[in-house]
Write a structure and sequence with these properties.
The chain is α+β, with helices and mostly antiparallel strands. The chain starts with a strand and ends with a strand. The protein has three helices and four strands.
Length: 96
């Protein structure tokens, strides 16, 4: 199993709802075993760059993740979110 985690920050806090809606498009893809989008609760007391959003997905393998990224919904999400986001940090790791 491959887990895909992406963190985002909004360039301007007024765009948070638009970013969340754009990221939420990803949950309509049929290429993930599980995918969710959440707003960071920002409850960690350690100072530093704190993401506004988290995208978490589970995929069988890299081929399924590639199919997810090839889905037109993925590009539609990018088109909405990229102009409004600041930081984007992604990590993929294998489990099991």
């Amino acid at each position: 199993m491959l887990r895909h985690i992406v963190f985002f920050t909004a360039r301007d806090p007024k765009d948070c709802d638009t970013i969340f809606d754009g990221l939420s498009l990803l949950t309509q893809s049929t290429h993930a075993n599980h995918l969710e989008v959440g707003r960071n609760l920002k409850s960690d007391p350690i100072d530093g760059v704190v993401p506004d959003f988290v995208v978490y997905g589970e995929f069988e393998d890299e081929a399924q993740l590639a199919a997810f990224k090839a889905d037109p919904l993925y590009q539609k999400s990018i088109d909405r979110v990229r102009p409004l986001r600041d930081m984007r940090m992604a990590a993929d790791f294998l489990t099991g």
